[in-house]
Amino acid sequence: MPIFTSDFSPTIPFRNSHFNTMYRPLFMKDAAKYSRKRITTWDHDFIDLDFSLVGSETLAVLIHGLEGSAESIYMTSSTNHLNSKGLDIVCFNLRSCSGEDNLILSTYHSGKTEDVDFVINHLLDNYTYKNIVIIGFSLGGNLTLKYLGEKSDKISPIIKGGIAVSVPIDIASAEKEMNKLKNKLYIEVFFKTMKTKVLEKAHKFPEFQLDKEKLFKATKFKHLEYLYTVPVFGFESPEDYWEKASSKPYILAIKKPILLINAKDDTFLSKECYPFDEAQNSEYFFLETPNYGGHVGFMNSFKPSENNWLEERIARFIKENIQIPIL
After folding, report:
1. Structural domain boundaries in the chain
2. What's the order of all strands across the beta sheet hosting 88-93?
3. Class of the 3-170+250-320 domain?
4. Rounded to two decimals, what is the model's pTM?
């Protein structure tokens, strides 16, 4: 598919990656009215789904990023904008991210598409939508791409396509990028909740042998993966997890129209996270790499009315390329 030339052109302050990344969660005010439905999983746990319905035949499934939720600003703004375009929305809160800890030791990780598959099948079995679109942000975007690639030969015809935003599709190289000094503040923000969750799991499940001293000293994602992700999810090593969880190897298997939007100035992403070759060699995979935007930022200016480029870009792809009629 062609590589899109982006029309995203923010004002000067928003051409700074860190400024754009932080502006949305710190200064944008948006809230969505949800109706929550809790579904029981096959492994005796639960997943919370937050619906915002307008009576549409099309449902957009939104999947948040690392330590996000349905209440993350990019989720609420996308929900409200797509509702205004006539689409129903369901926000998929990953396990432990809905405001209440899940019931079992394992939570979620970048490649845990079993949960995506479970949620999609639940929606297909219990609702009568004619079209479903999956939209993922950051880690949720990795899940979206990986799921559509893994299930390409078995996926329901009701699943029409998807959009992925600010995605570390190659986890090994992206983690090296995250370890750099420029991202130290972001790591500290993520670790505030991630370390707390791991400690709570160790308290609830004494059989989980956690080295608390190493947890307190952890400064890299690899450290947490070694202590929690690897033993809990059965990976051999962090490197094994990176390889198996990354969505990049699955892109060429995708057989539904999907757009990946990765800003060139995203400090979370390595050069391996810009799959130009895959876009040029796929019939279904579209790539857009704006010069600016940061990580799930894409803010234009200080005027709230001008800050819906990302939401409008998502809607335009649904209408023009997935070819679902919307307002």
Report:
1. 3-170+250-320, 174-245
2. 3-4, 285-288, 258-261, 159-165, 131-137, 58-63, 88-93, 46-52, 35-40
3. alpha beta
4. 0.97
